[in-house]
Amino acid sequence: MFGRLKQMLIKEFIQVLRDKRTRVILIVPPILQMLIFGYAATYEIRHVPTVVLDLDHSQESRDLISRFTSSPYFTVEQQLTDSRQIRDQIDSGDATVGLEIDAGFAEKLRSGQTAPLQVIVDATNSNTALIASSYVTQIALGFAQDAQQDRIDRIAPQLVTQMPSVVLDQRPWYNPNLSSRWFFVPGVIGTLTVVLVITLTAFAVVREREIGTLEQIMVTPIRPVEFILGKTLPAFLIGLLDVSLIAVVGTFWFQVPFRGHLSVLFTGAVLFLLCMLGVGLLISTISSTQQQAMVTAFFFIMPAIVFSGFGFPIATMPPWLQYCTYLSPLRYFLIVLRGTYLKGVGMDILWPQMAAMGGLGVGLLTIAILRFHKALD
Amino acid sequence: MSLTRLLAVATKEVVQILRDTRSLIIVVVMPVTLMLLFGYGVSLDLKHLPVVVWNQDGSQQSQDLVKRFQSNQYFQITGVVDRYSKVTRALDSGNAKMGLVIPWNFSQRLSQGGPVGVQALIDGTDDNTANVLIGYTQAVVQSYSSQIQLDWLERHGQSIPPGAVNVQTRTWYNENLESSAFIIPGVLALVMSVIGAFLTSLTIAREWERGTMEQLISTPVTAMEIMIGKLTPYFVIGMFDVGICALIAIQWFKVPFRGSLLTLAVSSALFLIVVLSLGFFISVLAKNQFAASQIALITTFLPAFLLSGFLFSIDQMPVVLQWITRILPARYYVSVLKKIFLKGTPTVMLSADLVPLAAFTLLLAIVATRSFHKQLE
Q1: For residue B277, which of A160, B35, B70, B364 is within the disulfide window of CB 3.0 to 4.6 Å?
Q2: What is the C-alpha to C-alpha distance for residues B44 and B278, in angstroms, rounded to an integer?
């Protein structure tokens, strides 16, 4: 058995690595994608173009505006003179946020009334809008708080030092600078593995079927198990190698910390690769041409990524869809990736994910192998 | 160029598509799947974020603060713990996104006066969720602090009117800040990238791989006829899919459509020609289905997903990447889509997007034809 398997493996490796184009494709696109993802994928908001219309021209209104000017989140590009200009600026997309301070702002504030701050946000990108308006509120609240403090200071200076207040001491763990890159880079490792390993496995088998060499192989003494192993082992090894390569590039290039144990990450990667091989093999049993395989793979890959929590929080999905996410192996691998990279947690926390991937992997592979046998008969 | 020969090539392609049931299913099912996937699965509207509370104090005042979190729709208190290690574990395992720690001397310190700190330990892995969480937490704590101060001043015989800033935010174009309205128009670009580049590059690469392209070339059919004949059926399919997607977006997901249908059709046709030409070009270059599919993924789907402004704002990317997006047709198409769906920008004002898109269409059509000609010589 080992002799035949060895021959099969040699053939497979030659087939994959013979073609220079395929060699390049196994290395360059994953790295390229890692770099593009690392730079492009960000939900962070900096320098949101902002226009200001100050109709009050008071000390207070200028103070409020200066808080926006000095904030890293907003870039105050223009001070306007007319409220129609806000509409124009936002319509044309030159500004994302428009602030309008009406006449009487300071007056109201001094007399203890509620002074309105009108904010107009371009919500074409709902996420930017949501976060930008949350920053606006934070700045305005801070301003109001200080204004109140000032008033108390004027009316009853003797009391200020004794006055109680509650301050928030916020500590973002795992990712103290709240960098999107730290969030996305570990995730990209998982996502790229999905695409690569599934297509590699599915294509390896389907290509033989399409060119007609599958029949030739089947008339040789090779047994189905050996054939399957011969097809999946190279994909597994290449997959593992690619994961490591992407992980090294992502980690060092983007300086993402790795706080856990490599052994935990590799255990997760191996279990995850089992799932991917199962899926790839399964796709190969239901496709007779490479085009069908590619498209079927696409049908699996897209939901697997969307349901994984890679870029879109699972918690915001409708409940019925949240149950679907349990079927995506990537969901578990991402928790392992982010857990080992950012949180530095070990098996005591990650065992449910490992168990889920192991279960899914064995299940998928069993179905795939059973179907494969049937397809050969 | 002969119309009969062109028709013959097109007919052959149509027969081939019709015969391959899976391809046929794909062209109808895939757009619908992608629309539903992104429409339901991708949402960044965070609510009910799981929080664990470690209230060391247990006094009336600390209970009041906890109640404010309880009654806030953005938080959901999932656990009350009595030890630091339990907070750590909740965050490590991802069961809670935030741990709120109220110190044991909270009420005592409040009665003594001066600032009292409340700790918010936040899972920063997902920076976007963390940012939103911090914003909401700050708002709760600040409003609580203001209330405490006013009560205190009143007890000390100072009635200082509250005086606050009321932030009145209006979100334009996407009034309810629906993620779906922001995401769904861009899905059209994804669908067309897949149909255009994936399907075509694979189909034509298959002809090369099997050697049937040589057979076709040896007939009197000219290069131009082959190209147009092969691409026309896919163009029709693509336009059909645009129709389906637009219908689902408007009728099912209730995404507002405020622009002109004609502009949607014209810009979609332009973008479709871009991706079809690109797919054709790739197949000429790669001639191998695995390579073609991977190159198509990198050059069409990935830019449409990552660098087009579909999900991640272009103006938040590094400057170099922002320049790169300018040479990507997907960027202009997504921009047009968002503007005609949400903003209702008149067509005249879309020239900044439509002109480059048209230029790319012309350029890629020429490049594809040239490369094919060269290949034949």
Answers
A1: B364
A2: 33
